[in-house]
Design goal:
single chain; 4-stranded mixed beta sheet; Translation Initiation Factor IF3; 3 helices; alpha+beta
Length: 119
């Protein structure tokens, strides 16, 4: 399972916000065919949402941990019945494929973008 920093996780959560779930886990649970579908989706998209149709939060957390362990992916978010996971592309090493994050600190002020205008 990959580990992400909080900045990387935040950047991935922002990217995942507009995504729709591409895989669903029904009441039958985490079958081998579901894991294969998640693997194929991660290979083509890298960042995916999974909808879990199970009411027990602990079961959903177990599904997230199992998927990430089996597929060498990183858990990004578990909110409600949605799981967000990320895996770097296979052609790039994990360190080179890390999501782009902006450094923490103050945002530039509007004044700094005005340039050398005369006042």
């Amino acid at each position: 399972m990959l580990n992400l920093s909080s900045n990387e996780r935040r950047a991935l959560r922002a990217r995942a916000h507009s995504l729709h779930p591409v895989v669903s886990i029904s009441q039958n649970g985490l079958s081998e065919s579901v894991v294969k579908e998640v693997n194929a989706s991660l290979a083509s998209h890298g960042l995916i949402k999974i909808r879990v149709y199970h009411d027990d939060r602990e079961v959903r957390e177990h599904f997230l941990a199992t998927i990430c362990e089996q597929l060498d992916a990183a858990p990004v978010q578990h909110i409600g019945k949605l799981l967000v996971i990320w895996r770097p592309p296979a052609d790039k090493p994990a360190q080179a494929a890390r999501p782009h994050t902006r450094p923490l600190g103050r945002r530039p002020s509007k004044r700094s973008f005005q340039g050398n205008s005369e006042r």
